[in-house]
Specification:
The protein is α+β, with helices and mostly antiparallel strands. Helices cover 32% and strands 27% of the residues. The chain binds adenosine-5'-diphosphate and magnesium ion.
Length: 301
Amino acid sequence: MKIAILSRNPELYSTRRMVEAAKGRGHEIRVIDPLLCYMTIASQRPTIHYKGDELVGFDAIIPRIGASITFYGTAVVRQFEMMDVYSINESVAISRSRDKLRSLQLLARKGIGLPVTGFAHSTKYTNDLINLAGGAPLVIKLLEGTQGIGVVLAETGKAAESVIEAFRGLKENILVQEFIKEAQGADLRCFVIGEKVVAAMKRQGKEGEFRSNLHRGGNASVARLTPGERSTAVRAAKIMGLNVAGVDLLRSNHGPVVMEVNSSPGLEGIETATSKDVAAQIIEFIEKQAKPGRTRTRGKG
Ligand code: ADP
Ligand code: MG
């Protein structure tokens, strides 16, 4: 097969591993920077061009669209879909997963366990919002944050109020969430491919830190999931419409709750922690799925 990875950086661990895995399985693979793609939009024959050449003959793409380039990146993915090229994650699903509020709403309507979460635009009724989320202690998050930056634990109602007002004063969108204390600074990253969790790790925050992000000094080890955790992760990915997803769960007193669903989950942490060849499993999945006509949306909305 001829596969393209849409990635800004061929040196990234995840990109390198997928190139290696694809070559190892006898495929032709090319890393394409989505920001350097340019396109023509016409009703009969949409095209994509790259460094002076037209991109033709691809059977499948693997989008690795970073949060900062979601807008243009998903347009490139959509163009491939319009050309009936199979994308392991479709553009609509990627856009969906990038919007935290939309994601939580979609998961909630299908009955997935979530921390009690509130959000508001105005700070006029902050007190009431805090009460609705169950009162302090509360976690307050910037909607646009990553790597644990912009995730704050407010121990008291007063602290929560101040943090919310400060963030809103900066015109940042936030959400307010029940603090899952019993998770004890750990979360579970479930790597889902298709209908399976192919690898899972437990990330534990460093001493005294409630955030388990590896970027905040957390460490990762292989996790043994319960059947309930497995099925929650698989269902969450499916609801988002993602074939490849990193589903982050917290172990709460009321069962597994989903924190977020990532459409471009990194391979380095999970492969290192679990010693599994996740890259090869992604390529295997493409081998089974990538056929003409398999693009569900064909670039639709
Ligand atoms: P980011 O997108 O920046 O990684 P997260 O929502 O994943 O933000 O939060 C970062 C970390 O903070 C999580 O991995 C988890 O360990 C901790 N955390 C987040 N929300 C909660 C919560 N509601 N209860 C307990 N811990 C939480
Ligand atoms: Mg996170």
